[in-house]
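Entry 14. Structure prediction run on the chain below.
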Amino acid sequence: MLNLIKSIFRVDLVSYLRVKAAIEPASPKDEGYQWLSLTESPQFQVSERSFLPGWYMLELQVAYDGGGVDASLLAYMGSSLEGSWERISLPLRTGRVVKRIVYFPQKVTQLELFPIDDRGCFSVDHFRIVRLASWFARDRLARRLSTMHPEFRGLGKLGVLANLKCKAKTQGVSRYQYALDRYGETFVRRRHDRDYRRWIDKVERSRKFPSLKATDSSTKEAVLISVLLPTYNSNISQLKACIESVLAQTYQHWQLCIADDASSDHKVKECLLSYQALDSRVQVKLREKNGHIAAASNSALELVEGEFVTFLDHDDTLAPNALQRISDFLLENPKALLVYSDEDKIDEVGERFAPHFKPSWNPDLLLSQNYVCHMTVLKTELVRDVGGFRVGTEGSQDHDLLLRCLPTLDSENVVHIPEILYHWRAVTGSTAQDGANKAYATEAGLRALGGYLQRTGQDAKTELGIVPNSYRVRWALPASEPLVSLLVPTRDGYDILKPCVDAILSKTEYSNFELLILDNQSRCKKTLQYFREISRNSRVSVHHWNHSFNYSSINNFGAKLAKGDILGLINNDIEPINGDWLREMVSQACRPEIGCVGAKLYYPNDTIQHGGVILGIGGVAGHAHKYFHRSEYGYFSRLQLVQNLSAVTGACLLVRKSIFEQVGGLDEKHLAVAFNDVDLCLKVREAGYRNLWTPFAELYHHESASRGADDTLAKRRRAKREADYLRSRWGRLLDTDPAYNPNLTLVHEDFSLMSV
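Output returned:
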């Protein structure tokens, strides 16, 4: 009888799938996958099934050999003569069942599934549709809107329902339709390659930027900005476009300083001199001997009269309002020494693509990669004080210059403008199109980084990073390696605790650590027996916390018992992968300016569980690049680069004990279960330290295996209380993460574009 009832309300659809287009069986070499998509629109028909009007839950799990793909369902409703198709999108998470509530106002007579929107191998592991009670559907819909949609964030279920009713009435549509439309927006993933044109039309062009103060050339407060432009045998049409982009600036108080590096093409010199004759703000220096880009840039620097200087490559272009926006921000930030903007690329036909929406000041990311790149504006006095451009760093001369300025720079005098002000031309053979085209630039960058470490007396070594044009700094440990106290709370959980402890003991190359198992009322005989056995290891001790579960209290209890100078918060479902994971984290945690240090965590299926924490996602915080494959680079390679982040997960977090105590440890009163790690990191950041995430400490994480999911009413209420407290405690900071960018989504965890 129970199976009969389930079959009425729950229909498994995998067996009803029939190939309709662009799908064929996978070959034996594609082990683990059933199907091969031949286009970006592979299509199944769901045969012999129809569905009555009403609310349903759509469930889908697709395994695939790529990342960042979406599925969609086409439903045909109504009669064959007067019906219509509706498309329902589902951003996929490999290895996970994704769910979406759908409402069918009429009988559905045809269903078609587009399992992925890319070529490649895949399998449909789970495809089900479940009939829902209307009250349950409305409750789930309101809950998702309150956490995932910026229009309703933080309102709570009742607030969402009241808001929906009011706005639907104002717009003259039904409350249900308005709610479903907003709900559907939380499933739309904005992709940079596919949706950037729409973003330009809807967001960039709609922005109005009135000047903070009048800044025309007759105003005393106007800042003179000098643009450095080195040239050498430039493509004439691209060079003209470059110079014309300066002449077309809405801001008039600029100087264009051009140094030609002894071009053999006489047309280049003729072009430059014609522009000099056209506009007195254009000044040209013709070098007699070729000295490469650093020397040519220094020649241009000699012409500079402006208080600030910026750099322009001879085939790139500026946005028309670039210098105006620079001026606006300089006037608003009188202490600024460095200003930089977002950028994109432009192809041979002028089409813009690949926008780089950057974080705010991020010194450790700068050590990993020149993320600042274009557009860079520096105070002229600072550039001259550090000696200008350094000959011998050609290809990475800008990065080298920033590294020589780095000791003077901090979050108080560095300003990031989250707007696309620079267009980097990507043509065949250019660095913009393929960074590997200039291998010498990578080597120059390595020398530049090594020079910075040597000048500042840092005990560290440099090496090439995982991705092109990136670097890794291996920080030395103190002469006396610090003792690390790893705190592992647990309640029973023998099957996950033993692999965790055994892996830490057997795989960790850094030997100076103690492991404190913090037992929270375990009753399992196997677990208790394991406690007795593992306690014989001199590095392991078991301590009993005989109180109700409170993650913060348990770890604070362990911190008081810890003998180490460094504390490690370690979940009992963590398993190290690389032997030097702890050494890497300790070397970062020992740096005086660094606070909390986080690791790169994977689910058992080798997809990302934690690539750092981004504030504001889902209402409070989310994990960067969640569900990406471990081999993927991530957004502008950030999955493979050491960087500063506002927060990292407490599932694997190192921090000096002195800092932990300085900020009062974890919040036992308000954050017993969730978000205590985010709160800790924000307190550490508030105390003046930089939090850091490293991809070079890799571990598996069986997320929430011991505590379980928030799947009961009491747990959901507790989670909401804790989320509400964190938002009341940190307020606007949760929506303005300096390690992120306001043009990127706060709905998904994939660095896709904000919804427009």
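The two ends are 48 Å apart (CA to CA).
Filed with the rest of this week's runs.
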